[in-house]
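Hi R.,

Here's the chain you asked about this morning:
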Amino acid sequence: MRKNTRTAVAVTGLATIIAATLTGCGTAGGSGGGDAGPATKLGKTEGQVSILAWPGYVEDGSNDPKVDWVSAFEKSSGCKVEAKTFGTSDEALNLMKTGDYDVVSASGDASLRLIASGDVVEVNTDLLKNYDGIFDFLKDRDWNTVDGKHYGVPHGYGANLLMYNTETFPTAPDSWDVVFDKASANAGKVTAYDSPIYIADAAMYLMATKPELKIKNPYALDQKQFDAAVSLLKEQRPNISEYWGDYLKEVQSFQSGDSVVGTTWQVIQNTLAGEGATTDVTLPKEGATGWSDTWMISSKSKNPNCAYAWLDYISSPEANAQATAYFGEAPSSQKACDYRDDCESYHAGDADYASKIWYWTTPIAKCLDGRTDVKCIDYAGWTTAWQQIRG
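And here is the predicted structure, written out as tokens:
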């Protein structure tokens, strides 16, 4: 389950994306830099691997004896797992710079920064037998692939949906206008995700409702577009009951009636539905933002063969099904659904549904929509603005 936020704090000076490589000898036999490209073959596993991950991604039974997909990996690979969890993307970025970790699970608001800083390496997906089975719509995307080079393996994904109280809204709302232009109708009972990346939700709404702004990508905003999104969020602010990061807090807020409408995750609705709450969710006509996480390998990995072994294992149908179900998101492959009974509620494998999701991607000065005549506001600018919006 998602027990921690995915809030990211900015780092300054993010420049153009640069390539990172695995080893000078072209195998997964050691660490180091150079321009030799990704591993061309795998060697003997080193006996251990250090994994940095979101809570719930690397479970070995110590938190719950019934929740364990790590032990099977250790037995089959010979790689003993040492895992550390993080609560924010910024924390993960700082920890990866230490060189103490072989693998990291990175959200789209962190992956490009890891690539740009050279902290992760290109991955040879031909060395991963389970890669072919991963949904095509999760591959070759802005947050995991740069200049045709793959920097990791997709894990799970999900949409930031619109949740509403069915008594307040007997007819399901079909637009995000209920949290933006019409938010005053439920003043003090609107909730929103607590992160600078939420600015993209406002930009996505403006993309549909203010075509004159010419927004093509909610993560690629020039100054005028960015100012419009920030202004919309400042207008929304007086109507907010709370900005949430911990999903349990949103569960409590909708149970108590303190919130009646706002952004959410499917796992939150599943939790509320299981407790008989009068809530439901929808993906509005403007679309939704969302996340697709990527398993990435450190450029300083001391155990690259075990790192590759983990990437392949965690993308196997059974392991991926266990991890994504526990966390509360759609799995990365259709075969994983053979080991789950809730794929339908997460719209797993529904390419049309997935096409409506604008997955979190790190905003950078080089506009992600292809424009070269202007600069876009980078994540440092997003963070500064979010602090002003939040007050």
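One quick note: The chain has two domains: 48-156+292-349, 159-289+364-390.

Cheers,
M.
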